[in-house]
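Ligand-bound model needed. zinc ion.
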Amino acid sequence: MAKIIDRSILQCPSCRTERLSFPDEKTILCQQCGKQYGIQNGNKYFFVTPSESGISFIERIKETVKKYPGVYRLLVLFISPVCQTDYFKQKKIVKSLLQGNKHAIILNLGSGPTDISADVSNVDMFPYVNVDSVCDISRLPFKDNSVDMILNIAVLEHVSEPEKVVSEVYRILKPGGILYCVFPFIQGFHAAPYDFTRMTEPGLRGLLAHFDTQEISSAGGPTSALLWILEEWLAIAFSFGIVPLYNILHLFTMFLCWPFKFLDFLLVKHPKAKNIASSFVYIGRKPTKDVK
Ligand SMILES: [Zn+2]
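Prediction:
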């Protein structure tokens, strides 16, 4: 169960005013531009109406499974080619922030159905089970300097202008607030529902240049990168141009290869692992003195 988002940090994503009212249990009303937003079950906020779009076979399976967060978690752990070697780091950074400030506001931006802890609020453009605020993450419905930590895990490749999201993250973080961001480097195309970009380590540093960098390391390592490519390569090479056969073979090669990914717990420590990492984890802080 995720943490309910406190209404006091909300603002209108359209006109940016903080003057919102809650005339009834189902409505958020902007007193400046008159826009109305929805509330479900008292604490799930809808700032956009989600739309469906055309996605691939594997992605369709993923989207179906995402309706069942427990099953989705198992699938990510056991079938996905990517070993999330930073999994425990995510839990640890949340825990250590809460030890110093048990009222800290922590958002998982682009959470999907994932629920990292009961102290993290989930934000996504789709209304998955655990999501607390449904909104466009490149125009967030939160006030400036209102959030203590933002997790953003394998999300920025799916937005057409990651700079906009980064600028919003910077805006809503308190000075000294922490950004924990995972960005893919060597991964196959995976629309969810879109997929636009990858980043090298210097690229990621550049994108997040306004933050004070504390750490940048491999999250998914060289084995994850290799397995993703190998699974798709085998499916392409042995399906002879027949897409339904490719779909079946791809599922089969995923089932066959996944156990090897755990080698990455060792290999991410190699000094050159970043050359072919599957993804990077970036930890940084918004400077206490605003330099932007
Ligand atoms: Zn407004």
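The helical segments are 57-65, 69-78, 87-100, 162-172, 201-207, 222-237, 243-257, 264-267.
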